[in-house]
From TrEMBL:
<dbReference type="InterPro" id="IPR038062">
    <property type="entry name" value="ScdA-like_N_sf"/>
</dbReference>
<dbReference type="InterPro" id="IPR035965">
    <property type="entry name" value="PAS-like_dom_sf"/>
</dbReference>
<dbReference type="InterPro" id="IPR015077">
    <property type="entry name" value="DUF1858"/>
</dbReference>
<dbReference type="InterPro" id="IPR007380">
    <property type="entry name" value="DUF438"/>
</dbReference>
<dbReference type="Pfam" id="PF08984">
    <property type="entry name" value="DUF1858"/>
</dbReference>
<feature type="domain" description="DUF1858">
    <location>
        <begin position="4"/>
        <end position="60"/>
    </location>
</feature>
<protein>
    <submittedName>
        <fullName>DUF438 domain-containing protein</fullName>
    </submittedName>
</protein>
<feature type="domain" description="Hemerythrin-like">
    <location>
        <begin position="203"/>
        <end position="283"/>
    </location>
</feature>
<dbReference type="InterPro" id="IPR012312">
    <property type="entry name" value="Hemerythrin-like"/>
</dbReference>
<dbReference type="GO" id="GO:0005886">
    <property type="term" value="C:plasma membrane"/>
</dbReference>
<feature type="domain" description="DUF438">
    <location>
        <begin position="80"/>
        <end position="145"/>
    </location>
</feature>
<dbReference type="Pfam" id="PF04282">
    <property type="entry name" value="DUF438"/>
</dbReference>
<dbReference type="Pfam" id="PF13596">
    <property type="entry name" value="PAS_10"/>
</dbReference>
<dbReference type="Pfam" id="PF01814">
    <property type="entry name" value="Hemerythrin"/>
</dbReference>
């Protein structure tokens, strides 16, 4: 059998195997018969690159070469892609596994992600890659993990897994929390309870998936150009979450419900495997220490998942968050804006906004039409001077309560000019609880009234 190396250029291969010209023409590479093209472009591109340019499926090329007596030497990545493509075309898992075991003694998890990402670059529909995301786990489990748990497999030579394990062992580190939540889900799935009870409890995994979607996927995609997980795994997360919700709402007791429940719980279990062995090691290999600390701080806004209470990461807690300078902008922990952006944003909000400082001085009114008029000349005046005598005692009482900490807000519902209004007076405090002033928000609620009257 003739062995062909697809890493060589088209010119090199045709020179080595003249009979290749006829095969390539039959596949659609008609320019290969033109000597000028062969001697110019043919010296620069490989068959895989040429197939991509012409939109010819690589699987068709491989099939034609094998049918004509060629043994194709593919890179590990190309072989992985070919296995995934064969699975997607309906070939049995066991049939593909035979070839997989024959050609691989071990496989790096990164190669799986790169293969999926390249397939998307080549135009493979996301839906197909999503399907592969489920199927390839079953394929790789046997060879990659040899059915070991994560704790048993961390002694492998995969550097990313080893690095992820080191981060996991840091008390309070985000990876520690993510891995612990996965351990809790696996324990839940192994419980000797009813399917309905497992489905109900498993819905909490939505919190885990939300953290991935907010904190991990975007950083991998935007900063590091690794978009495979965000394109594939994120969508699968959503499908698992949505199916669990549908099953909880479906009170029927049928074989169809049981089959759906078993299928979605299996998908959730496979996602645990992919996170532990692919996603988290990938994050560990790329994210900086400062990025992990920011992920930790952001993750504090999420509710506990599956009973897992995150530990405190003392190093992240003790480090003060530094705000990068942005010339000509207002810099805050939540971001940075130009004066014009901030002004436009505050004026766009459907509220009348008034801010009175700790010395009871009017400091700010947003612009635009107002039900309660706020003349510009009232800025820098005592707030009490803006109210009639009969109202002033009430205003003083509210602000005094805010200042003392007795109250934090005073909501008021009223009708004015035939329209329902919601007015909320709120104490403004710094992160230490120190009183900074009072904000008054006025919102026309007529739209809500009409909505609920329908």
């Amino acid at each position: 059998m003739k062995k062909i190396d697809l890493n060589k250029t088209v010119f090199e291969l045709v020179s080595e195997f003249p009979e290749l010209t006829e095969i390539m023409v039959s596949l659609g590479f008609k320019d290969i018969t033109k000597k000028i093209m062969l001697n110019s472009v043919g010296r620069m591109i490989t068959i895989p690159k040429g197939a991509k340019m012409k939109g010819i499926p690589m699987e068709n090329v491989l099939t034609a070469l094998r049918e004509n007596g060629f043994e194709v030497a593919l890179s590990r990545k190309e072989l992985l892609k070919s296995y995934l493509q064969r699975l997607n075309k309906g070939e049995s898992l066991e049939s593909v596994r035979v070839d997989f075991v024959e050609h691989f003694e071990g496989v790096d998890y990164d190669e799986i992600m790169q293969a999926e990402q390249e397939m998307m670059e080549e135009g493979v529909p996301l839906r197909e890659v999503q399907h592969l995301c489920d199927v390839h786990s079953a394929l790789f489990h046997g060879k990659m993990a040899t059915e070991q748990s994560h704790e048993e497999s961390v002694t492998t030579t995969n550097q990313n897994v080893v690095l992820a394990t080191k981060l996991r062992d840091i008390d309070g580190h985000p990876l520690q929390t993510f891995y612990t939540e996965n351990k809790a889900l696996k324990a839940l799935l192994d419980e000797k309870t009813s399917l309905r009870e497992k489905v109900g409890k498993s819905r909490e995994i939505a919190i885990h998936y939300a953290k991935k979607g907010d904190l991990l996927y975007p950083l991998l995609k935007v900063k590091y150009g690794i978009y495979g997980p965000s394109e594939v795994m994120w969508t699968v997360d959503d499908e698992i979450r949505d199916e669990l919700t549908r099953l909880v709402r479906d009170t029927s007791d049928s074989d169809e419900w049981n089959n759906r429940a078993e299928a979605v719980l299996q998908r959730a279990a496979e996602m645990v495997y992919k996170e532990d062995n692919i996603l988290f090691p990938l994050c560990a290999a790329n994210f900086s220490d400062e990025e992990w600390k920011q992920i930790y701080r952001d993750s504090l806004d999420y509710a506990p998942c599956l009973g897992v209470q995150p530990n405190t990461w003392n190093e992240a807690e003790q480090q003060e968050k530094s705000l990068p300078a942005h010339e000509g902008e207002i810099v805050m922990p939540g971001g940075h804006l130009t004066i014009e952006q901030l002004r436009a944003m505050l004026n766009t909000l459907p509220f009348e906004i008034t801010f009175v400082d700790a010395q009871n001085i009017n400091r700010y009114f947003n612009e635009g039409p107002k039900l309660f008029k706020r003349p510009a000349m009232a800025i820098d005046r005592d707030v009490f001077s803006c109210h009639p005598p009969k109202i002033e005692p009430m205003v003083r009482a509210i602000i005094n309560d805010f200042r003392s900490g007795k109250r934090d807000q005073v909501p008021v519902w009223m009708e004015k000019l035939g329209r329902l209004q919601y007015i909320n007076y709120m104490a403004v405090r710094d992160h230490n609880g120190q009183y900074l002033g009072t904000v008054e928000i006025v919102q026309d609620m007529e739209f809500a009234k009409k909505h609920f009257e329908k």
